[in-house]
Specification:
Shape: globular
Mean pLDDT: 95
CATH topology: TIM Barrel
Protein name: dihydroorotase
Strand content: 15-25%
CATH superfamily: Metal-dependent hydrolases
Strand order of the largest sheet: 5-6-7-8-9-10
Order of helices and strands: EEHHEHEEHEHEHEHEHHEHHHEE
CATH class: Alpha Beta
Pathway: Pyrimidine metabolism; UMP biosynthesis via de novo pathway; (S)-dihydroorotate from bicarbonate: step 3/3
Number of domains: 1
Largest sheet: 6 strands, parallel
InterPro entries: Amidohydro-rel (IPR006680), DHOdimr (IPR004721), Dihydroorotase_CS (IPR002195), Metal_Hydrolase (IPR032466)
Number of helices: 12
Distance between the termini: 19 Å
Family: Belongs to the metallo-dependent hydrolases superfamily. DHOase family. Class II DHOase subfamily.
Helix content: 25-40%
Number of strands: 12
CATH architecture: Alpha-Beta Barrel
EC number: 3.5.2.3
Low-confidence stretches: none
Amino acid sequence: MSEIIVPSPADFHVHLRQGKMATLVTPHVRNGGFSLAYVMPNLKPPVTTTAQALAYKAELESIDSSVEYLMTLYLSPDLTPEEVVKAKEAGIAGVKSYPRGVTTNSDGGIESYEMYYPVFEAMQRVDMVLNLHGEVPSDAKTNTHILNAEPKFLTHLHALHKAFPRLRIVLEHATTRAAVDAVKACGPTVACTITAHHLELTVDDWAGQSFNFCKPVAKYPDDREALRQVIRDGHPRFFLGSDSAPHPVHSKSTSTPTQGCAAGIYTSPILLPLVAHLLESFDALDKLEGFVSTFGRCFYRRELSAENTSNVVLRKIDGHVVEGKYGADEESVVPFWAGKEINWKIVTN
């Protein structure tokens, strides 16, 4: 197979930041082959109201109007059932939950879910999606750390699904076999995103290598195999959410005795060729369309029609080297696999 046609790829988890960084990275969504971006709300300050989400959407559209931006709200005590209804009427797609302190700009994250049950009931009623960052905070007293934070979260997933069986829930950026099995065990209203980089990396790749460090961290080879296998299986509730997370190069390449490097891997500019390359490497290239387009669009009810489909053409090519960085000066970002070769290239977008 030397050429692939992919209908309207959709990235159901991406960070587009704000200010100068947003201006730099937002066009990379389309450059990387994608016409839909499900945008995360962890800005400073976080996007907690409908008005903020719509203003952010307008900012992104002013940078690149060729992409459909699905907006989200940040789950916080300020979010009310009334605001959920307002958000739904305005076209806001989902609400993102971040456990406190586990990832970038999550200091205002949740500590327990019960207080949000009225919000979840409203979301279930109006059919908004709940997006879960599936980790619990580290705690030495309970032996909780970055390698087991995801498995320890899964009881919360099952409890939420049981309490709100009609609420559409997405477990974001799964990294473990336990997470894959947990989502499989749930009903049709629970889905899961998988990143491109977690299909490649294991714990050995980020230990000592800051540009491969993200949250949740890549786990063991057996966990990676579980992610790959569920894609080979063509499971319709597992689809791409890149979690592409740009950080200025200085925040990725430096750390101090009191401050670690930023957590995040940037894949947007190379995303579709990268996914094709990776799926081909583990004999799943025939599942590309489902993984990057059909499955996620079906779950989010953004199905394609003849009128709204734009095909992206990928061609097999040797020697296509990933750029070393994008941007200039202190705002430049280094992409995943910088300087490495990818065997696919976009020829029509």
